[in-house]
Amino acid sequence: MLNSFKVPVSTLIVVHDPRLRVLLLERADFRDHWQSVTGSQEPGESLPATAARELVEETGIDAAQHGGVANWHLCNVYEIYAQWRHRYAPGTTHNMEHVFGLQVPGHVPVRLAADEHVAFRWLPWREAAEKCFSWSNREAILELPRRTGKTSPERRTK
Question: How far apart are CA 120 and CA 59, in angstroms?
Fold first, then answer.
């Protein structure tokens, strides 16, 4: 059997509602560590296809039913955590992550992939950013008001 390694190119998908509440997932293999939907690109797969596939696999959310994922044209390079390097070809230490967003109308049903995540939460964008263990995920969520052209309810002035 051939050993197949993960491609060190991934997508991060910030799922949010119109009020800028963000969906976060708790990792099964790194308890108490929260993140947005993420996943590695398959060989020959486009980045939008990776993002859409990962959404369905990890949450059951079909991006096509919500207008599709939006490419934020934002790319981060980060060092792969030591505990996950065995998933990549020997000598691979960094991953290139491409950021996407998906607005859903509200708190849509979420069906977690039990082997990847154990819980989910919808949190206001600032709180969601603070809860993320990944710097790139935190920065992506902090971009949400600018990317959507919206302000969150707690920032509105009377």
Answer: 9
